[in-house]
Amino acid sequence: MSIRPQLKYHDTEPAPAEKQVLRLLSYNIQVGIASTKFRDYFTMSWKHLFPHAQIYENLRRIAQLISDYDVVALQETDGGSIRSSFINQTEYLAEHAGFPHWHHQVNRDLGRFAQHANGLLSRFQPTEIIDYKLPGLIPGRGALMVRFGSERNPLVLVILHLALSQRARQRQLASVGEIVKNYKHVVVMGDMNCQPSSPEMRSLLRKTDLCEPTHSLKTFPSWRPARTIDHILVTPSLEVRDVHVLGHRFSDHLPIAMDIALPADIDLG
Length: 269
What we know:
The chain is of the alpha+beta class. It has helices at residues 40-43, 54-66, 89-97, 166-180, 199-207, and strands at 21-28, 71-78, 101-109, 115-122, 128-133, 142-148, 155-161, 185-191, 230-234, 239-245, 256-261. The chain has one domain (21-261): 4-Layer Sandwich (Deoxyribonuclease I, Chain A).
């Protein structure tokens, strides 16, 4: 009589799937004007009105810098006017940095003279983009809401550039809180013109699930950073792997970068 060997089974848990890591960058590019000292605001102020040859070289440098990232939020980009030689700077950077998807939001339209805009560059195709006008005594501030993935469980990004007035920022961040309050996976990124300890920022964090992973990353002015006014805020469902400021002085702001690991149930496509 032959005896069949018994098979042994081991109760082992399957290895967890590796999380997808998304590389984010937020950058106020000052319409492609490189500033290296405070007096540049006066000696180079004409560059905010008229085209200049150096802008193309600076935009190419910015394109090379941002090409390492998956999603880039741009502030103070020009949508195509005299000062940018009628070039849409968001589109220009998307083309030269190799981003297949881009969108720009003109918030202050001065016709041929200036097209103040926020911009999105992405390696993943958004499933929805909504332009929001933010409240303020002086019109011209907006938020760009970008949804990735399924309608049921999306990753939501909000790109914004807030006002200089604290009262206006309080109203604007209250509006942002209303935009994101019903979503679980949220990133809010941009030039917020306020410190982490400001009343308007504390109010936003208190009324939403958003948090700021670090409070000490100074981004302005780029030649001698002293203020933390560029931010990337995230909800707890997003695992922050790294956050840092890049020391590239292609603007009067320094860019801020963050790597986040996404929950397994988010599919960016």
